[in-house]
Amino acid sequence: MNISQISPNYSSNSPPRPRTLVGRNGHARDERFEAISQIRLFAGLSTEKLDDLTLRSRWQIHAAGETVIDLGDTTADVFIITEGAVRVVVRTAFGYESILNDLRVGDFFGEIAAIDGVPRSANVTALVHTRLCVIPRSAFMDVVLGSATVGHRLLCLLASRLRAKDDRLIEFAALTVRQRLIAELLRLSRGRDGGEQVISPPPPQHVLAARVSTRRETVSRELADMSRSGLMTVRRGGIVLHRPEALRAEIEARLQGSTCDSTKPMK
Questions:
Q1: Most CB contacts within 10 A, which of 157, 208, 221, 259?
Q2: What's the pTM?
Q3: What is the CATH number of the domain that holds 240?
Q4: Confidence (pLDDT) at 10
């Protein structure tokens, strides 16, 4: 793995009337058409097929904190986020929680259950007021199986997610808690002038803990230690990684079986 690459159910029974749009053929369309047509997976589909997906889809609205789908649900719809954001989480009956991903406008989820028909494997919760365009399984699979291009794109997407999961498994098997936290901070950060990287707004410590499978107290201790070492600055408005190259080197050294002290300047 190359660390430099780390970069209660509610469905509105009467959803708001969508804004009406006019398509190229002069027929009235609503925002569902726009949401579906802007998904890269469906790029290049004919207007006729996009219209069919639109007619077979529906709106679903969730308030912040409400569950969209839950672990074990037998639904198989595919969801496109048109407003808001959701969090994908795995939880156990014993209270263990691991955050898999945060998804935002333009992202979609639910395709695994649509493909295999097996009950849902994770919980998805709205982080804020969220509106979703919901595509039934039958409509989704008609497109995937009816278009070689769409089918190939879906295979590439699933392969990419599988590779990402493999990387995470390696992290959990080989890295210390500190190094898993570093890897997550590198993934969440974006570059800025001077070679530094920043995470803004910073995720709460309990969220970071759930992402790397540890306790909030451990995250707090590790952040404080790395701040004292000059590797980062933790403020209310963001986390600044001053020496991201040293942080990456520490992880690479661990994965290669050698040692590297990221608290020392790079030569």
A1: 208
A2: 0.73
A3: 1.10.10.10
A4: 33
Residues 104, 51 share a domain: yes
Give residue 192's pLDDT: 86
Task: Say how far apart CA 36 and CA 26 lie, in whole Å.
Answer: 18
